[in-house]
Amino acid sequence: MLPAELYEMLKKVQEPKGYFFNKDKEWVLTILGDLLINKERYGYMSCPCRLAAGNREKDADIICPCQYRPEDVKEYGSCYCNLYVSPQWNESKIEHQYVPERRPAGKIGF
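Given the sequence above, the corresponding structure tokens read:
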């Protein structure tokens, strides 16, 4: 699968849930390409912006879309990777802030 194919597939699934891709399509395609690399590497699409353990059970919280996305988008208008954003974020109606890591320290850097 190519990043552009993944883009079209995920867009159809995620937009009805209220999660939109960042309007910077080049950025989005880069992240999607990295997700596909991680799928090939680990067998699942772990977040490319975080260090994966390579163990599906240990990485369950960072399989994209990660379990932190809802809170991140609600609070900051964007997920940690800036892949998924709110319409307000894309329209620059809210400030583009740094999204802090929500993953517990004990899970980071296995």
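The CA atoms of residues 88 and 94 lie 6 Å apart. Try to locate this feature in the token string yourself.
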